[in-house]
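Protocol step 6 of 9: fold each sequence in the batch and record its structure tokens directly after the sequence line. For illustration, a two-sequence batch is reproduced in full.

Sequence one:
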Amino acid sequence: MKHLPPLKSLPVFLSVCKHLNFSKAANELCVTHSAVSQSIQSLESYLGKRLFHRTTRQMTLTEDGKRYQRAIQEGINIIEQATLRELTSQQQISISIIPSLGLKWLIPRMPALQEKYPDIDLRFSTHSTLALELLPHSLDIAICYGEGNEWPEYNVVPWNEDRLVLVGSPSKKPLPDDLNNYFAEQPTIWVDRSLRDSDWTHWCQSLGVDVPNNTKRRYFQSSVQAIEAAIAGLGVFVTHRMFVNDEIKAGLLAELTPHSVLSRCSYFIVSKKEKQNRPEVQNVIAWLQDTLKQEKSVTS
């Protein structure tokens, strides 16, 4: 800090470099001609060299002036970029969510979030792993599926205990009492993912019926694909109610039985402890909680 020039003179210097005219620089900076002249004299005195050749008709930069202009302009650019990054990052929130929940729940509700907090720059991404250390360092919030004790180094807030439901096209006939025979004849839709392997088993066990056999299973790579298959009437599907609430409300899917069962895991809002006190993070977490609470109160 010992070798810094008079800092107030640097914007004046760059303005004079641009215009090569004291009066035009003064107009741009909204100061007097005298103030510009004094700033340049102060800077040249500090550096011990002339930065401008001045005559009655024109002004030009000296070689020292040209070299100093390039260096100062580069420094100012760095300061501007750093400041812009900080101004942006203060309002930027990065949120990651499992793909199906993101597509079926969060994205349709993001306009409401942006309307409530228009200054928040929400960055959305998806993840398919519970290992948060593999997610970007810039991540602020993650909505994760698990038992809640998998993330001891993070701030963990319970969000939703989701339920498994059996859904299908509204054109499907009412379920008979004998579900074993029904599932033996009815195509069933499955998601070929380890995270979803136990959904059908857990739901069937809760009713005391056999898990549908392999002969009429139709597999899809994601819950989103499986939901579309169910809408198209390709079979019946055990899935998470959060994934299909909107489709049920819209009449695209129907719950084929009132029976539902709590899924083995729940959803949690997970954030880094060093970021949990940011007002923007708190606002987004509160919005996630309030929105879900309001939707549950409407359906209950």
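Sequence two, same batch, same settings:
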Amino acid sequence: MKTIVLLLMAAAVISISGSTSIAYAAEGDAAASSDSLKILGAGLAFGLAAFGAGIGLGQVGAAGLAVISENPALQSKVFIFVGMVESIAIYGIVMMFIILGQ
């Protein structure tokens, strides 16, 4: 629980500092503001996807270890579930590259 609170506090600090830099960029050049919003969006896309995948992987990994300890023959099925959870982070990377490529 402490980790989640610390991550939310860090996200708030980053968003506050990001909004001040966006305000300064609006005074100068509109293209710089657009680029900074792209970078912010790409970072959020990947960061939130990786955060969600990490939480899911913790849950699936713990349950998977329990299943493997009960019945080692189910190891391949556990790896399939772990791969499905890890694919969420891969989708985040793909979205990051799509956002930065525009």
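Proceed to step 7 once all outputs are recorded. Observation for sequence two: The chain has three helices and no strands.
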